[in-house]
């Protein structure tokens, strides 16, 4: 059972999405109940995965492998480490939350909507569990299909423009990634004598690839990931996609799809091309710092709540990229934890905007004010989520950002603490745009008559916000529950990184 557990987790939502297509369109309630039950079962399965995981081991666990594409020496191979486990747990938590958030908002083509959400869940778990490059790429590309339709069919008025822009950007990055995968396989063939798509084999042998070729491979892989993050200046698709997507689409996009990029940087760019990683770190670190400050400044001037949160994601993801390129134990563990933190906090912010939008059908900040008087419970939840996104001590955002800043400041790979000094200014800027947002929406007198009769948060809305609030507080109060899962995995990455540095130094000495 343990050997096939990951495959069950990947294909359970995919297989059980198919019966949705045979429901009658009039059976709206049955469709929703069925979808929620399937997603909750998947979450429960992932909890078993958590309890079966041994954080003391550095090797991949729950590994399943069998031959797939013989002539490419490609296998169906899946397995997890601490990084994969956290992102799979985040995926299985966010999906039932997104389905519940769509309970009263999706009124057309319900069965197709929930069918696509369950397909997306299986593909996301597949991305985080794949240990074969071709298998990873298949899941990576498949995710484009449900997201394309989720935004294109159930989005807002400019959804077609946003969908096409999203598709072109991410497809361009995916093509570069595919070229990189093919080139890497044949480069490793020159080293080992045989083609391999196995991530572990590639990681062992890719350090022997000449530096000039490593740099080209690193660029091909990393561009695909940085577009998905998205890092400045590849970020322009994100605000449009967020603004036009339905609430569930925005939540999944922010909480899960963006993490595919940061996951790829750690799993592939850092692990496979450490010498090129060192060489190009200053350039990526500069872009990360620009993105951190630029995203925060743009958030301050936004008039649309969704667009404000979208630009805040550019800033927060810049922190994760900076921590990744710092390559220290603290920074890498902080980056991994911050992926989860961002998923919880920003996902919750998009849910909150969705609740307001359903009541007023506008996302303009100027339309609101004084909502605390009529929505006291909602305002309390909104405040907690804002403070978690800012990084208040005691809530989840603080731990991740603190570890990233400490690890980056002392990083020998960054060669300068100026990156960290400039990046830390965004901590202040995040307080500016989020607290100012809260002030304008929730505080003061009610000047707009349409806001006087708004209903407070419903039991349904409370049911899907409470799990997110639980983890926001849990990570803030007891982060070691999650940090211990990634400790040994990060140590393994760092050992591989140091070995590659030593080999590259020896190679440069021999050339001289």
Largest beta sheet: what is the strand line-up?
A: 1-2
Low-confidence region ranges: none
User: Which structural class best describes the helix and strand composition?
Assistant: mainly alpha
Count of DSSP H/I helices: 19
How would you state the average pLDDT, rounded? 89
Residues in helices, as a percent range: over 70%
The major pleated sheet works out as: 2 strands, antiparallel
Tell me the overall shape.
globular
Task: Output the helix-strand order.
Answer: HHEEHHHHHHHHHHHHHHHHH
Radius of gyration: 22 Å
Strand content: under 5%
Please report the total strand number as a whole number.
2
Task: Measure the end-to-end span.
Answer: 55 Å
What does this entry look like structurally?
The protein is mainly α. The protein has a domain at 274-499. It contains 19 helices and two strands. The mean pLDDT is 89.
Outline of the structure:
The protein is mainly α and 512 residues long. It has a domain at 274-499. The protein has 19 helices and 2 strands.
Layout of strands and helices, then pairs:
Blueprint lengths: L4 H11 L12 H25 L8 E9 L4 E7 L1 H20 L8 H20 L3 H10 L1 H11 L4 H34 L6 H7 L5 H18 L8 H8 L2 H26 L1 H27 L4 H22 L2 H32 L15 H15 L5 H14 L8 H25 L16 H19 L2 H32 L1
Antiparallel strand pairs: 1-2
Helix pairs in contact: 1-2, 1-4, 2-3, 2-4, 3-4, 3-11, 3-14, 3-18, 3-19, 4-5, 4-6, 5-7, 6-7, 7-9, 7-10, 9-11, 9-12, 10-11, 10-13, 11-13, 11-14, 12-13, 12-17, 13-14, 13-16, 13-17, 14-15, 14-16, 14-18, 14-19, 15-17, 16-17, 16-18
